[in-house]
Amino acid sequence: QKSSKSRRARKEELTREFENCLEQVLTWLLEAEEELSLLEKVDEDDLKVVRKQFKDFENFMGSLTESQDTVGRVLHRGQLLVGKAENEEERAAIEGQLRLVNGRWEELRELSMQRQNALQLTLNRLQNKQLVAIDKWLSEVEEEMKSCEPLADSQEASLRQIEAHTKLQAKIHAFQETINDLNSFVAVVDEGDSSDEHVGALELSLQSIGERWRAICEWAEVRASQLDGLAELCAHTTEVFDTLNEWLKEREHELLGLKSAHHLEEPEQVTEQV
C-alpha cells in the first residue's frame, strides 16, 4: 500500500515535471519557428549584408544548441512516463506529445541547417569574388607603377608626372575602405574535410594582399616625395641655364670682336683688349 502510494506520488511528480518542461519547450519552439520564418532571404549580391546575416544567424544557431539539452530532457522524461503508463490511452497520449515535440524540433533543426548552409555558400562565393576583384585592382596598380617614367628633367614634363601621381594617390586613397573591409572577412568553418585547407588558403590570400597593399602605399609615398618641388626645381634650373647661356653668348660675341694678337701693333691696343 505504502509502496503503491510512493510510486503514484513519484509518477505524479514526474508528470508535473514533464508537463512543465513540455510547456517551456513548446513555447520556445514556437518562438524559434516564428523567428526563423521572419528572417530575410539570404542576399545573393551584397557581401556586407550577407556577412551580417551570417553573424546574426550564428546567435540563432547558438540558441538551438543551448536548447537541445532541454528538448532531450523532455523526450527522456516522456519515455519514462510511457513506461509507467497505466493504460494504452495514457501511453498513446504521451507518445503523441513526444512525436509532436520531436517532429517540430527536427524540422526546425533541418530548416536552420539549410539556411546556415546557404549563408556559408553565399558568403564564400562573395568573399572569393571580392578577393579576385582586389587582386585585379592591385595588379593594375602594380603595372601602372612599373610603367612610370623616370623623374622628368623639364618643368612641363614634371607637371604632367605630378598630375598623374596625384590621380594615382586619389585612386589608392579611395580603395582604402575596400582593404579595411578585409578585416571583417569570415573564415567559414564547416564539417567538411577541406575546412582547414579553406581557412588556410583564405589566411594566405589576405596576407598576400596586405603585403602588396603596403608595398603600393610605400611606393606612392616615396614617389610623391620625389615629385615634391620637382617642377620648381626644373623651372629654377631652366632659368639658371638660360641666364648662363645668355652670358656665354655675350662673352662669345665680345671675343669675336677682339683682334688676333699678331694684329696688335701699339701698346695701347694691347692694354685696351686686356
From TrEMBL:
Query: What is the protein name stated in its UniProt record?
Result: Spectrin repeat-containing domain protein
InterPro entries membership: Spectrin/alpha-actinin (IPR018159), Spectrin_repeat (IPR002017)
Which keywords does this Swiss-Prot/TrEMBL entry list? Repeat
PANTHER family membership = SPECTRIN/FILAMIN RELATED CYTOSKELETAL PROTEIN
Q: Per the record's keyword annotation, is Repeat included, yes or no?
A: yes
Q: Which SUPFAM superfamilies match?
A: Spectrin repeat (SSF46966)
